[in-house]
Amino acid sequence: MTSVLITGANKGLGYETARRLGELGWRVFLGSRDEGRGRAAAQKLAADGAHVIMVPLDVTSEESVAGAVRLVREHTDRMDVLINNAGTPGRGVNPADATAKDIHAVYDTNVYGPVRVTNAFLPLLQAADNPRVVMVTGAGGSIAFVTDPGQAVSKMYELAYTSSKAALNMITVRYAQALPAIKFNAVTPGEVANGRFPATDMNRAGVLTVTEGSDPIIDRATLASDGPTGTFIDRLGPIAW
Questions:
Q1: 112-126 and 62-73 helices, crossing angle to 10°
Q2: Is the separation of the CB atoms in 115 and 170 below 8 Å?
Q3: Which residues lie closer than 8 Å to 229 by C-beta, 6 or more apart?
Q4: 3-state secondary structure (DSSP) of residue 157
Q5: 66 with 72: CB under 8 angstroms?
Q6: Within the chain, what is the greatest distance between any pair of CA atoms?
Q7: What is the pTM of this model?
Q8: pLDDT, tens digit, 9 for 90 and up, residues 143-178
Q9: What is the DSSP letter of 141?
Q10: Are the CB atoms for 144 and 241 separated by under 8 Å?
Q11: Residue 108's closest CA among 41, 144, 58, 154?
Q12: Hey, how many other C-beta atoms are within 10 angstroms of the C-beta on 222?
């Protein structure tokens, strides 16, 4: 049975990804910072036939991440796929007003979180035959996208979220280069060329469904052994860094 851990999976894109992979017969470790919501989400998926195990997981806590590893090891000796989905938009503070504290709070989840979780689960990933790591980033992490005057984000003067996703993109590439036995890929849940994104808690103005938004996550999570690594895609295909 293929095993996957998804962080931030109690709602939105993470939950939809868990639902879709559960339908494929995968064993889903549903990571959730809020235990109550996580258990409710896991119970709902299990009622529909998914093999799901709720994992209390706060990606900003070393102790919580270590506890997640211990729990997962009670069920499996390998991890086929890790999906670093947990993220936060921050408060959208203008660069002129942003403090280091504002930025740190966002980076702790969006940048340090994936590093904490990835490094903690590396031994389990390395024990798998075809390990894959999916970093859920965003179009706002693409310098090409943000510097395009035709895109609304170019006029959204925010510092923490977009720079955190750009950092996560670079982290993805560096992991891919350093660990070629594991496929590391970055995905953004939308259609960059069309300016279409899913409606989630982070983007309430989105027009795509969460199923459409999760398409690139599923694509990279289900890669065959000869699949690519070090790529950045949306649901339409590769996009510029």
A1: 20
A2: no
A3: 176, 180, 182, 183, 184, 185
A4: coil
A5: no
A6: 51
A7: 0.96
A8: 999 999 988 889 989 999 999 999 999 999 999 999
A9: G
A10: yes
A11: 58
A12: 17
